[in-house]
Each structure stands twice: as structure tokens, then as C-alpha cells.
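In practice, a research group might receive sequence data for several interacting partners and want a quick structural hypothesis before committing to experiments. The following worked case mirrors that situation: the sequences arrive first, and a predicted assembly follows.
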Amino acid sequence: MSLNAEIISVGSELLLGQICNTNAQFLSKELAMLGVNVYHHTAVGDNPTRMKTIFEQASDRSNLIICTGGLGPTQDDVTKETLAQILNTELTTNEVALHNITTFFKRANRIMTENNRKQALVIEGSHVFANNHGMAPGMAYKHNDKLYILLPGPPKELQPMFLDEVKPYLQKQGIISHFILSRVLRFYGIGESQLETDLHDIIENQNNPSIATLASSGEVALRLTAKAETEQEANRILDQKEKIILERTGKYFYGYDATSLPLEVSKLLEQNNLQLACAESLTGGLFSQLLTQISGAGSIFNGGIISYTNEVKEQVLHIPREILTSEGAISSICAEKMAEHVREIMDADIGISFTGVAGPSKSEDKEVGTVFIGISIKDQETVIYPLNLIGSRDSIRKNTANYGFYYLLKHLKKGE
Amino acid sequence: MSLNAEIISVGSELLLGQICNTNAQFLSKELAMLGVNVYHHTAVGDNPTRMKTIFEQASDRSNLIICTGGLGPTQDDVTKETLAQILNTELTTNEVALHNITTFFKRANRIMTENNRKQALVIEGSHVFANNHGMAPGMAYKHNDKLYILLPGPPKELQPMFLDEVKPYLQKQGIISHFILSRVLRFYGIGESQLETDLHDIIENQNNPSIATLASSGEVALRLTAKAETEQEANRILDQKEKIILERTGKYFYGYDATSLPLEVSKLLEQNNLQLACAESLTGGLFSQLLTQISGAGSIFNGGIISYTNEVKEQVLHIPREILTSEGAISSICAEKMAEHVREIMDADIGISFTGVAGPSKSEDKEVGTVFIGISIKDQETVIYPLNLIGSRDSIRKNTANYGFYYLLKHLKKGE
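A structural hypothesis for the assembly, expressed as C-alpha cells:
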């Protein structure tokens, strides 16, 4: 069956702009990965007349209709009632769902009001999807070669229900026959357009796996998605394409899937039993904050000094006054001393420093975006990375911190 | 004219789940504030046949139809062409828009390809909205008592165009007759449910102004929206309600509209010519990072010491070893010494310190969420604020930093 899918989202909170329709986005993305074409999104309120028209229009043009929301206990929630009426069928109590709901109330030590029984009603003859993160079950109902799927509105209920139950159901029904596997390759230190230029022919001639570029705050990632008969075959397709991509761009590659630069740095420090300290000027604590977001950072991070003024640079970080007056705080030599001194002061193995101009205006006559990052490792010569960044104050600070993680990673990998 | 509005969003990136339909949310929220009822959202691809059907269905049920996207230069962009065809009218070049587009290319020193002229085409007889943040103009076209409004897809073009041009246009057309004014009151140190309980009767009996509660990372805000014949009258309505609200909850109030705790703290430090220094343990740089996000922080923030390990607390912050071994790092006395010492080390007027357990596991046998914040002011007794926070590691860290700003604000205001 060739699938024309559409998504109907029910809820006045959408029409009032109180929430964004993230359910439609989530389902569309998942369906796209499964090779299912979505041609329409509709949002409508909990109004039976308007909802009925929308269901009828959807039935005329689509054969997979996924509807989210309006399965709750209140009088407002009329999605399944309205659909049952159109399909000329009845609602019936699903005992498993009813049991889940009564258990939920018992556990929460709350009295279950009568209207909650309504949540256990499902369309007669439908396949029921259990709700492991809430009360209202989902359901799938086939009618005249069309498949209707009703899912609860809250994203934290809908998303696991779709991934854990609806997806396997669609596969079992033979609606989706192939195996889909994605892999994200993460890069740093290369722009989106440069990466696309370097891989131009590969991206241009993509087929299986498909290749999508994802970019966010200075970082670029490629999502490869393979379609195959088996998981093994999908993995083989991904491995093959990854090899070709990394032959060209491997020096910017740093990790797979949900990892991040701070996480990769943490892991390597941990593995090598190394302690880090940092001296931050323009980043003002951002680098340390990103590192300490990771739980267990205490074993790899001693601490940092935020030297926002020259007085603190001189008195706390012991940067010689001559350097600050002759070369200035935004200089290669200042970054060098900051990295070395913070390493010594904090008794760490590695010191990293950040000095530069985040903007909005020049400082010490140096242009906005002028940045020096220093990395000092015990018994090694300190290395300085000068950067010229563009963008807002916020993006210059973020990019500076991320470059810090990237250069650290390069250092740590060299040492392996 | 009683308005039934609907929003049509054009773009295959919506149907592939690559972006979320934030335009529909933005427009719905704005229209709700103007008292306009939105009954449908639809998203459809750049496909003339399907788009035509959607326009026809919309024309049957709504009298204000706002369509976003598909006004660009490529062959894919067919929104205005399709609408013109349905309305039996023509497209014509708008000279002002064409001038903007050619100027744009000249400034960017790029060659304007022929297809960009297409962006200057508008529906004949339409009212044109200038695009001050991009190239494609928007337009409004009246036909049989229905008003069609076409807007560009990129949010950074659509949002200012709606606020600066479409809203006044709707008012001028008599479609929106009243004056709408919003004011946001920001609170800290009080939970959303407590605020709602304290203001229960006021929120329950709201009419004009309407009252909406907004909550985000430990902070609560109330948005009051008044409707009146004149701006002066709307302001009077807001003033009156604000007075009643602050009589009950004034001690948690800290600012209006788009302000933030770090911004209010910065302003007060600046006004009082005071310098701050901070010692961070569990927040790991987050407090400093939030403060230095604000440009010009150099004049009120000397710097900070991130003392993530006990060794750094002892050797850099000079916390006596006895304190660390007897009371522990997570203690009132440690917070006190951290605040006092960082103030002295950084030669600041005020020192603030953060120590505690962000989790996920206990530390020093103290529960996750145990936090001490210290504030030391020259020639004054140091004050300690103990907190017991709940939530994830991330939210405990964020709340701790925000409480730091809140307590600082209280101190600074007391001194006024």
C-alpha cells in the first residue's frame, strides 16, 4: 500500500498559540525516516463539528491518518467519540487500560473521579496501544483501506508510544517493510558550507543512506539514514558511507550520535586520569559551566579562575603587569601565561585559557572576535590558538568555549 | 465584521519535520491577544494542486486567511501564483520591493540572478507590506468580504512584519477596533502554584485585563493584557490591577517585561558603583556566565573562582582545612568563608558564594538539593541562605544561580 499520511492535532491550546505543534514535527520526522510521505498537517479545536469536517477531508485524501490529542477525561475531549461517529462504530471499555488508570490513582493515593473511566474507552475493534507514561491509551483502527491512529496529546506520552508501539505495529502490518537505521557523525572546526563543499558529490548523489546536514552553534553534524532488509545490512551500508566521508573530513570528526564536545573531553580526561583547570576572560565561566554540567566532573576538573578585569589577571593569575600594559590582555602571551599559571595555581595536569573580545565593541583596539586560546600541559610547550570569530557577543562566546573543547580533544587524542 | 481566522503554512520542511511550525504559534498568540478567533492551522507543501484545495477550503469557512511561506525566488515557491489563480487575478511587479531587492544584492556585492525579480511580484491591487528583514514583501488582498494576508516564511522576517505593519493595517481597516496593551510582572522565590493560590480570586475573576501565568526555570511571571479605546485607558487598567497584585505578592516581584534577574542585578551594581566577585562550587561557572552574558559586565564584575575540589577551596580560596574536614564543603560556614575570601582575593565590594549538591548522587552524606548561598558585603555581617531544592542536576544548578541573583537583588534594594 502506498502511503499518503496526514497528521491532525486536536487542541485549542494550539489555536491560541499557547503551545507549538511539536507533535506534528516529531511524527513527521519519524514518518519521513520510515519513508512515509506526509502531505498535510491540520490543527483544530475540541469542537465536534469542525473536527468531523477535518476527519472527512482527511479520509478523502489520505490513507494513514494520525490524530493527536483530545483523549483525556474531560467533556472537552471528543476525538475518539467524533471519529467513532464518522466511522459508524461504537466505543467500548478496554479493561487493561481501565486497570492502568485505577492503579495510577491508587499509587498516587488519589480518588479516581468517575470521568476518568472515559479515558479507558476505545473504538470497538481497534488495536490498543498501552500508555506507559500516562493514562489515556492510543489506538489504531482500520476502515476501508484506511488506517486511523489516535495518540495522546502530551509529547512525553506520545513520543514513547509512537517509538515503542506504533512503529513496530506499522512494521508488523507490513505497512513499513524495511529496516531504518540512523547514525549521526559530529564535526567541529569546519563550517557547514565547507563540509558540504568537501562532500559535494556524495551529498548530491545520495540515495541510500540519505544524508542530512545539521548545524548548531558552530558545530556541524551529518545524519546518515540507511534503509535495508535487516539491521546488519543497514549497518553495513552506514559503515561503507562513513568510511568514504571520513577519508575526506576525518580530521574534523569527533564523535557519534548524542555525544558532545564537553562529554568527549571528559571521557578522555577520565581515561587518562588527567585533571583540568581553566582561566576564563571573555567566556566568563561558560567553558567551566559546560564542563560541570556533566555529572562526575569533579574527578577531571579542579576548578577555574574567571579573570574578568586586568587587576584579577595580575593579582590572582599573576600575569606580569608589563604584559598587560605592553601587549595587552588580549594577546597570545597573555593567553599563554593564563593557561600556565592557572594550571600551577590549581595543581592540575592541563591548563586552558580564553582571552579575547566578545563585543559588542572593540577592546584594547582589538577587533570584536579576536580570540586567543592557550593550552598548557605539564612538561610540554604551551600552545596558543588564535581565532578570528564573527557573529554576536553570544555566539562568539559560545564558539570560543566550543573551540576550547575541540583543541583539548585534539591534544588528548594526539597523546593516545 | 466578526472574524474567523485561519493560518496556512506552506513548506515541505514542515511536512518533513525539519522545522516546527512556530509561525502558526506566533500568529495565533498575537491574534488571540487582538481578540481574533483562530479555528484552523494547516500545513501543506509547495504543491499547487494541494495548495489550491487548501485555499478553497479555507475560503469556505474563514474570513481572515493568513498564509506564510512560499514567497521566495525559486520555482518551488508558488503561494502567490496559486492564490492569484484562485482569485482570478494577476501578479504585478511592485517597484518598491524590486528596488529593495536590487539594493540588497548591491550591498552584499553579489550578482542578482533573474529569478530574484519574482520576489517583487505581488497580487494586483493588494496592499503591500515592506520586508525590512529580507527580500520578499508581504501583501493583503480583499476579495468577497474575505481578507487574504500573505507573509514570508522565515520567522525573523514574518514577526516584525506582522507586528510593525500587519497589526496597524488591521487596526486601520477597522478589523481590530480596540487598543491592546500587555505588561509582564516578573517574580522570583515563589512557585507558580503558590502565586496562583495567593491570587486565586483575582485570576478566577479576570476579565479586563486578562491574566496569564508564565513559568520558566524557577521564575514565574504574570502577563496582564488590557483592552481599551486608548493607550492611556489601557495603561490605567493595567496600573490598577498591578497595584492589587503587588499588595499581596510584592515581596517576590523584581521587574517588568523583558528584564531578567542578572540584568536587574547588573543595573543596581552599576548604579551603586559596586564590584562583585563570586566563588562557585556546584554551579561550576554558571552564575558568572549568566552575569557576563550582559555586555558591559566588566564594570561590575571583577571575576570569580570556581572551586570544584576541596584542594582548590583550601589552596586558592583559603578555606581552613578544619572546616572542610569537620563541617564539610557543603556547609553554612564554608559558604560564609567562600563569600568573604573571594571578595577579598578579588578586591570587590560584594562576594557571593555557592556550595551544595547538584546530584545525581549525595555528597558528604548531604542530600541532593542541599545548597548554601553566602553573600558578603564589606563591613557587614555575611548572610547565608540555605536552600533545599528539588529537580534534576540541571535544574538544581540553574535554580541555585537564579536564587543567587534574587538574594543579591534583595540586598542591593535594602541598601537603597
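Before designing any experiment, note the following. Chain A has a mean pLDDT of 91. The longest helix of chain A spans residues 393-414.
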